[in-house]
Amino acid sequence: MSGFDAIVIGAGNGGLTAAATLAKGGAKTLLLERHNVPGGCATSFCRGRFEFEVALHQLSGMGDASFPGPLRSVLHGLDVLDRVEFVSMKNLYRLTIPGRLDITLPADRNGTVEALTKRFPAEGKRIKEFYDLVYEFFNQLISVIYMRDPEASSEKYPLYFKYAMASSQDLLDEYFNDPLLKASVAAYWGYMGLPPRYLSFSDLAALIFAYIEFKPYHIRNGSQALSNALIEKFTENGGEVRFNCGAQKIELENGAVSAVVTERGERIPTGCVVANISTPVLYNELIGVEESPKEKYEEMSGRTIGPSSFTLYIGMDCTPAELGIEETTNFIGAHDDFNHAFSQLRDIDEPAMILVSCFNVSDPGASPEGTCQIAVVDLQYLEPWLSIPPSRYAEEKYRYAAKVLDLVERVFPGFRSHIEEIEISTPITHVRYLGHPGGAFYGFDQHIKDSRLINPPVQPISGLFHAGAWAAGGGFQPTLASGASTGRAALKHLGMRGR
Amino acid sequence: MSRRNIADQLEGVERIREETRICRKYGIDYTVEKGRTMRLVNLLHPQALRLKVGTVIRETKSAATLRMAPVDGYLPPFQAGQYINLFVEIDGVRTSRPYSISSAPHQTGFYDITVRRVENGFVSDYLLDGVGPGDEFESSGPSGNFHYNPLFHEKHMVCLAGGSGVTPFMSMIREVTDRGLDREITLLYGNRREDDIIFHSEMKDRASRFGNFVYRPVISEPSKTCSELTGFINADLIRSVLNDLGSKTFYICGPSQMYEFCIPELEKLGIPKNKVRREMFGQPQDITAEPGWPREVEASTEFKVSVRGGKTLRARAGESLLAALERAGVVVPSLCRCGECSMCRIKLVSGKVFQPRGVLLRQSDREFGYIHSCAAYPLSDLKIML
């Protein structure tokens, strides 16, 4: 078997952009994917007359052609922008806490400040100051971290040095009194899988800044369209992809990558591997516990595996308007205490906070005319699901789904009577399809201590690179960007500069 | 300033670094994670099952039930109505067919599959004539979504079955009656002749013993002595059996002609779309009879199929690409074999294929040239990528 310059293991977002970067840079690249479809989470499936988006809710960092965001630049660099259509959303989200709060924030800085001020007039001054802080802080972060200002200092960038290690809760408490206001500002915590008391202020500021400045986006025909486009570009540039062919082993020689053995038993020589799989599987299974560097396990030992989700994919026999759905993104909280809501992710009793995404609001073509497609997401850890005996699993799924639908009904009455198709996925489903411990699509929890600045990842095996949620944090923008930058690092390792 | 220096000057960084030290000190040894989760997940969703035929039960002159026990002692749970894809090797060709499980989910010791002879059925002939106790098979885990769903189905299910399409309903009926579930089932079961009816005596027996199960066979070519309903399962017949059409979910399983016939009949009765569930379209017996088939192409026409980086083979227009690949020994995973599940997805690099109704293709797959090989029939020479 002749070898490859590089082998990418896993065609998730990170694997796809890494492979596309390598092939474009002139490296002879093989992409291995254990499933029959590329994308990992970035995929879709069909039921009846519906095609359901699996994972994408609001694409961040896109921006439009006149004001491109960082993700648009990454995708532009990989020549896929003309093959995929992006649809922008005008609002960030609607947050409802039945009986107590119902607020919609536009994807516009002044508009958001105004909407919050209108609902919480007593705190209007502090609301404006908070968003000023978010912007000023994040601009400083860009200079220090992304632009790498060589003269960065706490005098030059005081806000960054003061708040980089702060939690979101620290700032919410410093600025606001009303818990409903704090909830309104921090509703995006679910996109990171950590509640305000754990979520770093840097991450919350990044979410707010990126979604307001670059607007939230959806992909026409779903995230599978982007996954397919990346594969197309990769193969056009000479890349070879094998579906239904996972990797079984990464072989090392003198501490450097020497070959990949596929699950069909084929040994393929290479000096460079980009792994787009979970960290525990990478070291436990592919490298092997014995061969793996001790410092990697030391690093992992301080980290915890992030949440998965309980998701309902629903095809409705009516339009969003008939259901009273006016926003693509609807958060519904059973209460306003998001820190407690996070604890409830380890329990299958009552859903605490759910996301109801209706893609047809921004993309009427998301399902056949007169219907709509809805995804209801409730973050959940895997553990409680593993405690259910297999014989009771289906029953428990339905029981909990009914509770989630009850919460949806509180905001959108009559919802249940319009269901035409429904598919339930649980954390177990996500383990099954992703192979990740915990079904954790965001990878490890991203606590403040886990910032790459504080704990830069150790990479002691020469020729081994790691892309995706487990290496760089979860979400579409981070994983797509991480693959591209990992691909560039791999090219550099191969002595190729890339085109 | 280096990254390290930046980090050193962040307010509160010492406290955060201390957190890392503490977390690692009392941390998690991830070496024990090895294989753990997948072992648990495999209890629900094993990649493959090994099944051994225990007994063969003759049901009618053209149908038999294979009762299959797990070789390793464990069967994953399923929902009544689900199927397994059974792999067989016949004359050196490895292929597979999906069969609904006809035994009840609470019967955890075995799965029954009930096979009826299909005209020129390569696999059904083999299973009915060539298989006996002790024979072993590989299958997929239970799959499919043709089952009761309490989230939006009515508690009263009206099952419209045709021929071997009764098998998923047998499982549901056994479950509902044996377990005393708070649900009702009305089964309208169409067959050509009385002696084609599978499970007839068991159905009659259960209907006589349980008040929540109504059984009405419908015979289209009745004998002179036939005492059952006769004709087809049309709107009038459905109305005559049901007192009231409201608060019911209708389930249809049978040959594809049955869906074409029954779905408009239900529409005539004003049954809303979300109260009608149908099982997948099976593989058409004669693809050239499908609407949209180009008349100039005959079933026997052969085309050349080149697999990128692999074999080149001959494929007949009248046979699915998946079957042609299997015949040539090319491994393509498959599950539903009805064009819905996408397991056999491949890329059509060049050439033209016919895709019958009922194929569920992702929008972007269609645009980027992917097809489901089980439901794609060659109309020209093809280049494909697996």
Describe it:
The complex is a heterodimer of chains A (499) and B (386). Chain A has 499 residues and is an alpha/beta fold. Chain A has helices at 13-24, 70-77, 109-119, 124-146, 158-163, 168-175, 179-185, 201-214, 223-236, 279-288, 294-301, 320-323, 338-343, 383-386, 393-411, 427-434, 469-472, 476-493, and strands at residues 6-9, 29-32, 44-47, 50-53, 63-64, 67-68, 86-88, 91-97, 101-106, 217-219, 240-242, 247-253, 256-262, 267-269, 273-275, 308-316, 329-333, 353-358, 372-380, 419-425, 464-466. Chain A folds into three domains: 6-45 and 67-84 and 222-303 and 441-493, 3-Layer(bba) Sandwich (FAD/NAD(P)-binding domain); 106-214, no CATH class; 307-434, Polyamine Oxidase, Chain A, domain 2, CATH 3.90.660. In chain A, helix 1 (13-24) runs parallel beside helix 18 (476-493), helix 3 (109-119) runs antiparallel to helix 4 and helix 6 crosses helix 8 (201-214). Chain A starts with 5 loop residues before the first strand and ends in a 6-residue tail after the last helix. Chain B is of the alpha/beta class. Chain B has three domains: 49-139, Elongation Factor Tu (Ef-tu), domain 3 (Beta Barrel); 156-278, Nucleotide-binding domain of ferredoxin-NADP reductase (FNR) module (Rossmann fold, 3-Layer(aba) Sandwich); 293-385, Ubiquitin-like (UB roll), CATH 3.10.20.30. Chain B contains ten helices and 19 strands. Chain B has helices at 3-9, 13-25, 36-42, 122-129, 167-178, 200-209, 235-241, 256-268, 321-327, 363-368, and strands at 49-60, 63-70, 83-90, 93-100, 111-116, 136-139, 156-162, 184-191, 213-219, 229-230, 248-253, 276-278, 302-307, 312-316, 345-350, 353-354, 370-372, 377-378, 382-385. Chains A and B meet through strand 3, helix 5, helix 9, helix 10 and helix 11 of A and helix 1, helix 2, helix 3 and helix 10 of B.
